[in-house]
Amino acid sequence: MELLLVIIIGLLYAAGIYMMLRRSLVKLIIGLILLGNGANLLIFLLGKIVKGEPPIIGPSEKMLGEIYADPVPQALILTAIVISFGLQAFAIILIKRAYKVVKTDDLDEMYATDEDL
Amino acid sequence: MLTAVISGFIFALLIPFILGRLKSISTLWVALLPLTLFIYFLSKIPEILAGNTIKTSYQWVPSLGINLDFYLDGLSLLFVLLISGVGTLVFVYTSAYLKGHHYLDRFYAYLSLFMASMLGLVLSDNIYTLFLFWELTSISSFFLIGFNNDKEDSRKSALTALAITGFGGLFLMVAMVGLGQITEVYQISAMAPMAEAIKDHSLYGWVLFFLFIAAFTKSAQFPFHFWLPGAMKAPTPVSTYLHSATMVKAGVYLLARFTPVLGNHEWWNGTLIIVGAITMVYAAIHALFRIDLKGILAYSTISALGILVFLIGLGSPDALLAACIFILVHALYKATLFLVTGIIDHETGTRDVTQLRGLNKVMLPVGIAAMLAAISNAGIPPSFGFVGKDLIYGATLNMGDLAWLLTCLAILTNVALLVAGFVAGIKPFLGKLPEKFENVHLPAPSMYVPPLILATLGILFGLFPGILEGGLIKPAVSSLTGASPDFHLQLWHGFNLIFLLSLITIGSGTVLYFLLKPSESLLKKVTAFDRFSPQTIILGISHGFKLAGKGWTGFFQNGYLRYYLITILGFLSLLLAYRLYLGVDLLINTELMTEVTFYEAVVLLVMAVAILFTVFSKSRLAAVASLGVVGYSFCLIFLFYSAPDLAMTQFSIDTLTVILFVLVLYNLPKYLKLSDNRVRIRDGLLSLIFGALISILALEVMSESLSKETSEYYAENAYILGKGKNVVNVILVDFRGFDTMVEITVLAIAAIGVFGLLKLHLRSTEKE
C-alpha cells in the first residue's frame, strides 16, 4: 500500500507543479491545492500508516495501547488543511475580483499596477 | 597627544553652532586651532632631537588589540608639522576665499575633521587605528571634494575619489590584518625588530600586495592616479591642503612608515621603483599639455608623488633623505602655487593659462610668491628645491648598474615639472596685461600672505638648510633607516656631476618652456589618447560590472512566477539527481508494509484518474469537480488509516472549496490554452522529474527508523494531563493551544480579506 501511496504523492506533486507553471491564475490555484494535498499525504505517510487503530483512548483506559496511529502528523495535517483552506478561499475571491477589474487571468498581462490601467 | 588629535574632532562638531551665532565677524580666529597644534608640536622638537620618541597609549578594545596608541618620532613629526603648519595657512586663506559663503561653517567643520584624521593617521602606532584614521581621511575628503554639491561634476568627482580611496582602504585593512597575523603584535614600532622574520614569512608577498594597492590609490599612483585631477573640482583651499600637501602624501607616509618593517626586499624595491617611475614620467608629460592651472598642478602633483614613491623604492639612505627633503620642498612650493591659483581664479574668474598674462601689474605680492615657488620647483639655486633636486640625483647616481637609466628618468621628469611650474607660476604674471583684467585688484592680505610665507620659506630653507637639518630632517631620516644618519645639508657642493645635471635640467627645461606653448588644440590632441588611459579602462570595468549586475538581476528576477519556479525546481532536481547519481541504496522492504485490499486499490485508481482529469480537462467545471473527487478520495484514505479527524476536516473543507469555486465559477475567466505544446512538454517533463524525485525521497525517508518520543509523550499524557480521549484534539486545543489560536486568527484575517474583496467597490473603475 505504501508503494502505491508513494506513487500517488509523486503524481500529486507533478500535477501540482505542472498546473502552477501555467499562465492562467485559475490553474495556478488548482495547482496549489494539488500540491498541498501531496504534501499532506507525504507527512501522513512518513508518520507510518496504521490500519484501524485511531489515536483515541478507549472508554476505560487512561492512555493509548501498544499500537496506534501517530497523532502528531495528524495534528500537523489538520492544521495544514485548515490553513490551506483559508488561502484557497482568499485566492479564489481575489482572482474573481482581479478578473473583474483587469479582464484577464493571464499572469503575463497582469504586470501593471492599477494606476497604469 | 590624544587631546591634540581629538580636539579637531570636537572642534568639527562645535563649529557649525559657533559660526551660526557669529555670522558677522571674520572667521580668521578659526585658524587658532591649527596654529596651537603647530606650536604644540614645535615644542616637541628638542625631545625628538635628543633621540627620544614620545609614546602614549589609551585602551580602547584591548581584547582585539585595538588601542589608541600614539607615537611621535622624526617621521611623524615631519608630517604633523606639515599638516598643522599648512593647515594654519589654509584656514587663514579660507576665511577670505570663502568669505560670506553660505556653508562656511560646514566647510570649516569638514576641514577640521580632515585635519584631525590626518594627525591621527600619522601619529597612530596601532595598525587598526591607522586604518580607522585612513578611512576617516577618505570620508572627510569626500565631503570636501563634493563641497559644491549643487554641481554634478563635483558630486561625480567626489564619488570617484571616494570609490578609489575607499577601495584602497579595504586593501589596507587586509594588509594590516595580515601583518597582525604574522607578527601577533599590533604596534608598528614593535614590528621593526621582527623585519627579517616577516620577510621570510609566506604571507609577506600578500601583505606587500595589499599595502601597495592601498598606498597607490591614496597617493594617486599609476594606474589609480585619475581621481586626483578630478578632485580639483573642490574649492582651492581643499586642493591646496588635501591634494598637494597632506592627504595624497598619506600613501607615501604609509610606505615610509613601513620601510623599516617591510622594506629592503627585492619585491618592495622593484615594485616601488617601477610604479613610481611610470607615475612620475607619465604625469609630468601630461602636465605639459594642460591649460587649466589646476589641471597642470594636479598632474605635476601626481608626478611629484611618483618621485617620492620612486625614492622610497630606491631605499638607500641617500634616497630616503632625498624623499624626506622632497616632501617638504614639494609641500612648500606646490601649496604656494595652489593658493596663488585660487587667488587668480577668485579675482579674474578664469584659470585658463592661455588667457592669463601680466598679472604682476595688478597683484605684485602674489606674483612674487608664485615666482619664488616656480624657482624652487625648478630647482634653481639658491632655492630649497635645488637642495632637493641635488639629493635626488645623488641618490639615483648611486644605484650601480641602473644608475644612468634611473637618473635619465629623474631628469626627464624634472624637466617636464620645471616647464609645468613655469607655466603655472610665471606665465600668468609676465607680459602685457589684457584689458579685461585691468580692473583686477589685490585680494585681502589673509589671502596673499599665506602663499608669500610658504614661498619665502622655500627660499630661506635653501639658503640656510642647517635650520632644518638638525631639528627635522635628521630624526625623520633616522626613523626611516633605523641608524643615526651621517650627512650635512648644504646648498653648494662645488662643480661636480650633480651640479652639471642640475644645469642640464634647468637649461633644457627653460628652452622647452619657450618652445612649447600650451594651447587648446594641443590639449585636444593629447586627450585623443584618453581612450587608452587607465581612467577609461577602470571606469569601463566598473560600468561593465553594473551592466553584468543588471543582466544577472534581469535574468533571475524577471517577474514571471513560472520562471522562478522553474529555476528553483530545476536547481533542486539537479541537486537531488546528483545525490542519486552518487549512489543511494534504496531498501524497499515490502514485508513491513501494509497489504493492499481491493477497495483501497480502487480508491487510489479513482484518485489517480481524477488527478489526471483535473490537469487535462478543458472545462473549468469538470476540473473543479474532479478536484472534489481527489479530495473525497483523500477522506477515504484517512478513514482507512485511522485518522477520523482528518477525514472529517478534509470532507468539510473540500466541500466548502468546491462550493466556493462553483459559486464564483461564472465570474471566473475562461479556461484558455495559453501556452504552446513545446512549453507544455517542457513543464510536464520538469514536473514529472520532480514528482519522481519526491517519490524516491519519500521511499528513502520511510526506510529510516523514526523516533517516536514526541508521539509517545502525547499518547501517555493526553488523558492524564489534558483530560481528553481524542489525542489529536488534545494536542491541538491543549498542548499546542496557542498555535491553534494563532491559526484561528489567520483564518479570521483571511475571512476579513474575503469579505472586503466581495464588498469592495472600486469607485474609480466603475465610474468609467
UniProtKB/TrEMBL annotation, chain A:
The keyword Oxidoreductase does not apply. The keyword Metal-binding does not apply. Keywords: Cell membrane, Membrane, Transmembrane, Transmembrane helix. Pfam families: Oxidored_q2. It comes from the Bacteria. It is a multi-pass membrane protein. It is found in: Cell membrane. InterPro entries: CPA3_antiporter_subunitC, NUOK/Mnh_C1-like. The chain crosses the membrane at residues 6-21, 28-50, 75-95. Belongs to the CPA3 antiporters (TC 2.A.63) subunit C family. This is Na+/H+ antiporter subunit C. It comes from Cyclobacterium jeungdonense.
TrEMBL record, chain B:
It comes from the Bacteria. It is a multi-pass membrane protein. Residues 62-108 form the NADH-Ubiquinone oxidoreductase (complex I) chain 5 N-terminal domain. Residues 680-760 form the MrpA C-terminal/MbhE domain. Residues 605-670 form the MrpA C-terminal/MbhD domain. The chain crosses the membrane at residues 6-22, 29-50, 70-95, 107-124, 159-183, 203-228, 268-289, 296-314, 320-341, 362-382, 402-426, 447-468, 495-516, 563-584, 596-616, 621-641, 647-669, 681-699, 744-762. This is Monovalent cation/H+ antiporter subunit A. It comes from Cyclobacterium jeungdonense. The lineage of its organism: Bacteria, Pseudomonadati, Bacteroidota, Cytophagia, Cytophagales.
